[in-house]
């Protein structure tokens, strides 16, 4: 039996929702899982190409689990929130080692996997196994806040607990996939943050926000965080047709990706490089500032000042560093005209790739 809320969403989704996304029309839990992880805090339009490349390279759990994480990260580079990729790989290894390589069907087992929260586990359970489990992602929270007239910060635990109770109450026992997908589609396409398309919404006749003129004020905006600004210098070390990159630590910003060496704005470049590569490195006349790059994170903005440093051709490679994971890459790897395989030879943060492509 459906509530009026669920009935309207299911009917709308079947006739007006999205049905042709690459991860739809399948019961394969692996495909559904990968898509749900990629879609966390990321728009569908940004995910599609990444999903298709990822699935081509890692078509099943065994392939993903048996591939070193360093070879997985290039297929996530540019998508952001890199802990998702590391958790995806960890979970594949857990499934391989503890579940015989078969994605679990039990909700609690799915929820226990690295990187899978309650809502993501519910979405996988619904799409792969038809289990009636409620979800509560950002889109659903926005729909709930408007339709049920819920005020307060939707990130607050008390508000979230209230929404989970509503989600459980409204959850139908059949047509589960259409209901879950319909909530996602409605929040993404009609009940958007700005300029919601209320006249097209199947819930408009009973939506409290619409009836009381609260659409612009619900959900309530959280207090705006102060965005700080930082500056850094990145060294573009070139030797003939190669560029020097260093692997970043597995946690933190750009965790596990290859990056240009970074140093403080007031650092002594020549001393730093001689300490790294040897005191006889001749680069005094080889420093060339490049155009600054602006990049935004959730909590701060970053201005990168690239400094191009051409190491004389007579210098012999390999110039090695003490840091593990440091190596020289052929610049053709980052050429926009190269094939897809070469594009993924190195996992790069988006601004670093932009710097290298500009070369």
> If you average the pLDDT, what whole number results?
91
The total strand number stands at: 8
The main sheet comes to:
8 strands, mixed
Structural class, judged by helices and strands? alpha+beta
- Which architecture name of the largest domain does CATH use? Orthogonal Bundle
How many structural domains are formed by the residues?
Answer: 2
Q: In which range does the helix fraction lie? A: 40-55%
Which term fits the overall shape? elongated
Tell me the radius of gyration: 24 Å
Q: Into which percentage range does the β-strand content fall? A: 5-15%
CATH topology of the largest domain: Endonuclease III, domain 1
What are the segments in which pLDDT stays under 50 over at least 5 consecutive residues? Answer: 337-344
Order of helices and strands: HHHHHHHHHHHHEEEEHEEEEHH
């Amino acid at each position: 039996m459906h509530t009026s809320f669920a009935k309207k969403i299911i009917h709308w989704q079947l006739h007006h929702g999205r049905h042709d996304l690459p991860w739809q029309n399948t019961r394969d839990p692996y495909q559904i899982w990968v898509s749900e992880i990629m879609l966390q805090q990321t728009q569908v339009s940004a995910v599609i190409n990444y999903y298709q490349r990822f699935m081509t390279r890692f078509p099943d759990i065994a392939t993903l689990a048996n591939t070193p994480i360093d070879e997985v990260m290039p297929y996530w580079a540019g998508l952001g929130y890199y802990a998702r990729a590391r958790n995806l790989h960890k979970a594949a290894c857990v499934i391989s080692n503890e579940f015989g390589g078969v994605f679990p069907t039990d909700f609690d087992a799915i929820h226990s996997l690295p990187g899978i929260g309650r809502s993501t586990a519910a979405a996988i359970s619904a799409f792969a196994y038809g289990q009636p489990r409620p979800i509560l992602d950002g889109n659903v929270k926005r729909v709930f806040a408007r339709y049920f007239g819920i005020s307060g910060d939707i990130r607050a635990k008390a508000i979230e607990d209230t929404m989970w109770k509503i989600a459980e109450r409204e959850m139908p026992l059949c047509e589960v996939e259409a209901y879950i997908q319909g909530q996602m589609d409605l929040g993404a396409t009609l009940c958007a943050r700005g300029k919601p398309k209320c006249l097209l919404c199947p819930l408009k006749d009973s939506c409290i926000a619409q009836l009381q003129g609260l659409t612009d004020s619900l959900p309530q905006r959280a207090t705006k965080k102060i965005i700080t600004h930082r500056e850094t210098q990145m060294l573009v070390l070139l030797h003939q047709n190669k560029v020097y990159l260093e692997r970043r630590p597995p946690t933190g910003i750009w965790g596990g990706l290859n990056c240009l060496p970074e140093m403080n704005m007031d650092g002594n470049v020549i001393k730093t490089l001689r300490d790294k590569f040897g005191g006889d490195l001749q680069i005094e006349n080889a420093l060339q500032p490049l155009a600054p790059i602006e990049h935004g994170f959730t909590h701060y903005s970053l201005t990168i000042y690239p400094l191009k440093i051409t190491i004389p051709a007579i210098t012999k490679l390999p110039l090695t560093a003490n840091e593990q994971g440091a190596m020289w890459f052929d610049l053709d790897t980052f050429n926009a005209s190269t094939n897809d395989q070469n594009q993924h030879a190195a996992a790069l943060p988006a601004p670093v790739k932009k710097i290298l492509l500009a070369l």
